[in-house]
Amino acid sequence: MSNQYDAIIIGAGISGMYQLHKLREQGLSVKAFETGSGVGGAWYWNKYPGCRFDSESYTYGYSWSDEVLQEWDYKERFAAQPDTERYLNFVADKYDFRKDIQFNTRVTKATFDEKNSQWEVELDDGTTARAEILVSASGPLNAHTLPRIPGIDSFKGDWAHTARYPKEGFGGRGADFSGKRVGVIGTGATGVQVIQEVAKTADALTVFQLAPEWCAPLKNGPISPEEMKDIKANYKKIFAECNETFGAFHHAFDERSALEVSEEEREAFFEKKYNEPGFGIWLGNFHDIMTDSKANDLITDFIARKIRSRVDDPKTAENLIPKDHGFGTRRVPMETKYFECYNQDNVQLINLKETPIEEILPEGVKCSDAMYDLDIIIYATGFDAVTGSLKRIDITGKDGEKLTDKWANGPRTLLGMQTVGFPNLFTLVGPHNGATFCNIPRCIEQNVEWVSDTVAYMKKNNFHSIEPTVAAEDAWTIHVDETAEGTLFPTADSWFMGVNLNDPTKKRTFMLYAGGQQNYRAECDKVAENAYEGFVLK
Length: 538
Ligand code: NA7
Known about the structure:
Layout: E1 2-10, H1 14-25, E2 30-33, H2 42-45, H3 57-60, H4 66-71, H5 81-94, E3 101-102, E4 107-113, E5 118-123, E6 128-136, E7 158-161, E8 181-185, H6 189-198, E9 204-209, E10 216-217, H7 225-233, H8 235-242, H9 263-274, H10 280-283, H11 293-310, H12 314-319, E11 334-335, H13 338-341, E12 347-351, E13 357-361, E14 364-367, E15 371-373, E16 376-379, H14 388-391, E17 394-396, H15 403-406, E18 425-427, H16 440-460, E19 466-468, H17 470-485, H18 517-529, E20 535-537
Parallel strand pairs: 1-2, 1-6, 2-3, 4-17, 6-18, 7-16, 8-9, 8-16, 9-12, 10-11
Antiparallel strand pairs: 4-5, 5-6, 13-14, 14-15, 19-20
Helix pairs in contact: 1-16, 16-18
The structure holds ligand NA7.
Ligand NA7 is lined by residues 141, 147, 185-191, 210-211, 331, 352, 380-383, 495, 501-502.
């Protein structure tokens, strides 16, 4: 059986839901297919203890619905996962999204039918569906990766990757780990959130750390009803301010160089930023900390001193200080008393660079020097970032070309929205896209609106196919790489750089657009204003 639509959307997270809304507004027949049983994407899947925003809550929601803005109250400056999942369900209910979403359904295959200029998707229930427009809204951090450790399946206790953590916790105990010996593998943004939560109740928590991160304080706190009232009156201004900054966060880089101010002034500024809520220490710092290695050395040294001052045992402190990359060149995990966890008797840190994991046994984790018996293992080992969720679908474009083959040496795109040979396929928050390094809903709205306007333009002008030119794709791909070279990001291995030690086939290449979301937005607008220059419309 084949179901015919004007557009098919893969995924019903923040981007999929808004894309559904915008295309439905145009009177198109639209269907979204979602693997999960509910809406929310990342906020549906990531139910691990301690999961919450690093973006200020009131900058994160959809800006397109005044009703939602006025009806939803945030209780915390950085909302926890259950609140965000509730919020996204509230929006889905209000706009009756569910009637056009088929849940519990994975898109396994997508094939372009050149003759009819249509995509046919195959679903894991054995059915197919067709549409002229195919929008992937499958998320940049969705395809989770487990470590390649011998014996991983032999563990007899409870275990989960953070992105598939059981909703009710192990044994229905939520975040109560009393009486349990817990191991956490991975210390990125997720691992840090998990560790500080598990440390509160576990009898014993063993952290298996491959590489420490430059974490900084989140400074979460409540939002009072009065503050919320004020926020509601100022949403327009808040979103406009976000849209003026590099990453669409409510933090803008300081125009001064870290090198031009006196030592006292610099130290006082770093201290102020360290004590402010959110990403200000990273994205509201001196503008050159991300582009000039001398400026970066100064903030790196400041954060190292902070870690030393917060961790009692000097050897543990040194193990928690990154030695191979500067502050901010990888994603900065935001923490709440994270470093103080290591001063507790129930928490121990294992430096896997010194004593690597050899295997996982039924009783726990065996490192080169010792065996750690465990009841629970939590894998916070990250994702096949940005391209992973696309790679897991067997996507075939013109002339039988596979997307995985085309991107075998790294993605090639125009604006991170489309790739040559795959007409009418739009990749929201895809590789090379300005939305991927961003306070994500702010940039998702830009992505979705651009795609919606493009589809409307096609309909109005009776075009049935859109695809980049090879020259425009080459130019954008080179621009993405050159823009990254102007920053310090390529100096570190990270998921920004496509590095994932659990997937050795992945090439080291910059996956995002580092030119700032304002510039990205301007580039997209310019293309549309110039009748989609760089694209072939037929
Ligand atoms: P990340 O940031 O990719 O972190 C994964 C962590 O897991 C990181 O510390 C890895 O060390 C570690 N890891 C990965 N594989 C292994 C193995 N095999 N053994 C031990 N440790 C391992 O994922 P997160 O979920 O924390 O965050 C992803 C994004 O979600 C984050 O940036 C936010 O934007 C939201 P490594 O770094 O590879 O040395």
